[in-house]
C-alpha cells in the first residue's frame, strides 16, 4: 500500500509539473543583424537580440518594451569576465525566454498588457544600454555599445509595427529599470506624436547614498562605469550642465525632474540590492556583522534597523523631491525587502501579491499607465486630474 501511495504521489507531482510547463509562454530570440552597420554589438562583439510576442485584439497596436536587467561592469577585468556569459554575449543566452508577470499573455495574470505586443530587450552591454565606446589593447576587444544596441533594436521594431503604435510603454527592471529612466525621453521622441508614450521603472531608482562606513561606494561605482563605457555624453543634458560632477546624472534622483514623459516608479523602500551592495557592501562589512541581518530582517539589531529606516527615509525624500516638479506619473513604493516586482508573477499579480490600499502592483500600474489616458497625455478631461492626484496620494501612504 505504501508503495502504491508513493507512486500515486509521484504521478500527481508529474502531472502538476506538466500542467505548469504547458502553460508557460516561451518566446524565441530574434537577432538583429542590421546592428552591425551602426556598431551595435554586445560586449564580446556578438549581435544584440530581443524576444517579441505579438499582440492581438484590442492590444494589437499597443507595444510594451521591457529592458532586461542584470547589473553592470565598470572595469576591464569584470567586463572581460562578463563577456563570456549571457550578460555580455548572445552566444550564451537561451534562445527561448519565459514571459511572465508584466510580459504574460494570460488575461487573468496580466489584465492590462496581456494582449499587447510585448518585447524583451536582452541585456549584453553591461552599461544599462547607454554606453558608446570600445576597448582594444591588441589582445582583447570589448564593445561598450549599449546606446547603439538600443537604437538598432528600435530601428528593427519600427517597421514591424512599432511605428504605428497607439500606446507604447517602455519598462525595465533593476539595471533595466535604470535604462527605462535613461531612455524614456528618447523613446517618446522616436515615436509619432499621436502615440501615447509612458515609461515604467521597476527597482531602477538607485540612490547616491553613503554606505555604513560613510564611503560613496555606489557613487564611485557609477563614476567608473560612466567613464569606462563612454556614457556621459548620453546622459540628460539638462542634468549634466547643472551638476558640477556630470557623472552623477547616472542617478535618477538628479535627472528625474527633467523627464516630461509620463513615468511610473515601482520600487521598494528597502530595495534589497541596494541594501546588500550600496548601503552595506562587502567592503563595508569585512567582519560579517551584517550577514545575519541580510539573511533575515528578524535578525537585525536595533542599530541596524535604525540604519535601514534612515535609508528608507532618504529614498522617500529623494523620490518625492524628484517628482514634485511633475504630476505626470505615479508611484508604487512598498516596504517589502525585494528587488524587481514586475517580472515575477507572485509580486506582479497574484492572490498574495503586495498591495497598497487593496491595489496590487499590476492594478496600480494599469490604473495609472492604461486607464488615466486623459491626464497622462496632458489632457485634463472630466476631472481626471483630481482622480489621479488622489490615487497617487494613496499609493504613497507606505505601511
Automatic annotation (TrEMBL):
Molecular function per GO: hydrolase activity
Known role: Hydrolyzes acetyl esters in homogalacturonan regions of pectin. In type I primary cell wall, galacturonic acid residues of pectin can be acetylated at the O-2 and O-3 positions. Decreasing the degree of acetylation of pectin gels in vitro alters their physical properties.
Alphabetically ordered keywords of this record: Cell wall, Cell wall biogenesis/degradation, Hydrolase, Secreted, Signal
Pfam families named in the record: PAE (PF03283)
EC number of the protein: 3.1.1.-
Entry keyword annotation includes Secreted: yes
Predominant subcellular localization, coarse grouping: secreted
Subcellular location: Secreted, Cell wall
Family, as annotated: Belongs to the pectinacetylesterase family.
Superkingdom: Eukaryota
Entry coiled-coil feature ranges: none
Organism per entry: Populus alba x Populus x berolinensis
Signal peptide: 1-20
Protein name in the entry: Pectin acetylesterase
GO biological process entries: cell wall organization
InterPro entries: PAE/NOTUM
